[in-house]
Structure formats: structure tokens, C-alpha cells
């Protein structure tokens, strides 16, 4: 066992080094990727101004609220990715960009046609997710009011299951004859973005061999 108390001096030294590294990483990121970072900041600023100018016209009910919430999530995620990029964490940026792209693809899919039905399926999938967790972890509900809420969620989820609203409970659009995000992207004309940005970004999101190291498989494992 390592005695952390005996390493106090080295830990403090490492903390100082981390602070210095943060400053240097931010300097290098701004120097090497200035045009990209400037473009991203400009894009976020444009979106903010447009939303502020159109604030009175923004929907407050119906399927458009779902689309708007997805777009708001996308913008927030892009801003988080920008924050990482400015700090010099370039490798992790693709993870957040992937999330933002999924929000955009989903929003476009819902808005393209049959919007009311699609938005409803998207929103109701929250019940399926909660029910799945409650079935796995029933002890999460301990207080009487929590147990009542859990019972309502489970009953609602059971009705959705009977209607086969979600043949694949892990994907919200499975009842709309869509099996994956790729299917959504294909319908809304964003297949290139899925293949190049979303799929490649998934390598860093998950523990794929391209994620941790970002390189090729070590030579000794190739055969």
C-alpha cells in the first residue's frame, strides 16, 4: 500500500506542474488552432444572438419544444468542446462533438416529417429508460412517495411495451423502423457526417484500441 502522506511533497510538486502545463497547453492550442477556435467562437456567438433575437417567437409547446431542446443541448455541448479545445485537450474534443452531432441528427429527424409522433416517441423513451433502471435497481425507491412514483413509471413502461412502441428498448426510434443513429442520419442526408465524425468519434468515446492511444495496434500483436 502506498502511504500518500509520505508523498505529500511530490503531490504538491505535481500539482504545480499541472498548473504550468495547463497554461502552456492553452497557449499552444491558441497558437496552433487559432482559426478553428475563432470560427467556433464565432459560430456560438451567432447562435446566441439569433436565439436572443427570436426569443419571443420560440415555441413553448408541441413537438417544436423537443427539437429546440435538442438544439439547445447541441449548442451547449459544442461550447463544452470549445472549452476543452482552448485548454489543449484536443483528443477529447471528438467525444463531445459526437454527442453534439447526435443531437443535431435527432432534431433534424424529428423535424423532417411526422414530427408530432416522433417527438412523442422521443419524449416517452425517458419512461423506458427509467423503468429499465428501476427493474435493475429496485432498492433505489425507498420512501413511500418514491415507491409510488416508481410504480407509476413501471406501469407506464408496461403499457408502452404492450404497444410495441420500442421493439429495441435501448433505442428510442426502434418503433419507427429505425435501428440506429445511422438510420436517422441517412434519412436526413447526414450520412457523411455520421461516418466521418460520429463513427470516428466513437473510437475515443468507447474503449476501442484507437481510443486510448490513438495509434495502430502494437507490432507484437499484429500477427
Please explain how this structure is put together:
By secondary structure, the protein is mainly alpha-helical. It has one domain. Helices cover 70% and strands 0% of the residues. The chain is built from eight helices and no strands. The protein has helices at residues 8-32, 34-53, 63-86, 90-112, 115-136, 144-162, 181-187, 191-205. The radius of gyration is 22 Å and the shape is globular. The two termini are 38 Å apart.
Give me a quick take on this structure.
Helix 3 packs across helix 5. This protein is mainly alpha-helical.
List keywords for this structure.
single chain; 223 residues; globular
Specify Rg, calculated over alpha carbons: 22 Å
Helix content: 55-70%
Would you identify the regions where 5 or more consecutive residues have pLDDT less than 50?
A: none
Shape: globular
Topology (elements, then pairings):
Elements: H1 8-32, H2 34-53, H3 63-86, H4 90-112, H5 115-136, H6 144-162, H7 181-187, H8 191-205
Helix pairs in contact: 2-3, 3-4, 3-5, 4-5, 4-7, 4-8, 5-6, 7-8
Amino acid at each position: 500500500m502506498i502511504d500518500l502522506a509520505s508523498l505529500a511533497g511530490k503531490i504538491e510538486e505535481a500539482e504545480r506542474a499541472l498548473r504550468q502545463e495547463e497554461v502552456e497547453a492553452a497557449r499552444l492550442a491558441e497558437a496552433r488552432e487559432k482559426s478553428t477556435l475563432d470560427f467556433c467562437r464565432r459560430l456560438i456567438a451567432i447562435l446566441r444572438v439569433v436565439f436572443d433575437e427570436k426569443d419571443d417567437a420560440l415555441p413553448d409547446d408541441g413537438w417544436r419544444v423537443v427539437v429546440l431542446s435538442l438544439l439547445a443541448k447541441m449548442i451547449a455541448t459544442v461550447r463544452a468542446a470549445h472549452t476543452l479545445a482552448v485548454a489543449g485537450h484536443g483528443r477529447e474534443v471528438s467525444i463531445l462533438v459526437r454527442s453534439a452531432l447526435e443531437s443535431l441528427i435527432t432534431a433534424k429527424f424529428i423535424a423532417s416529417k411526422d414530427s408530432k409522433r416522433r417527438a412523442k416517441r422521443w419524449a416517452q423513451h425517458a419512461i423506458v429508460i427509467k423503468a429499465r433502471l428501476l427493474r435493475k435497481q429496485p432498492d433505489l425507491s425507498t420512501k413511500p412517495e418514491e415507491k409510488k412514483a416508481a410504480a407509476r413509471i413501471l406501469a407506464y413502461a408496461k403499457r408502452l411495451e404492450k404497444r410495441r412502441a420500442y421493439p429495441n428498448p435501448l433505442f428510442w426510434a426502434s418503433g419507427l423502423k429505425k435501428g440506429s443513429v445511422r438510420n436517422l442520419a441517412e434519412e436526413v442526408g447526414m450520412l457523411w457526417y455520421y461516418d466521418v465524425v460520429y463513427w470516428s468519434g466513437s473510437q475515443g468515446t468507447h474503449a476501442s484500441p484507437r481510443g486510448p492511444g490513438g495509434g495502430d495496434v502494437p507490432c507484437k500483436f499484429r500477427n
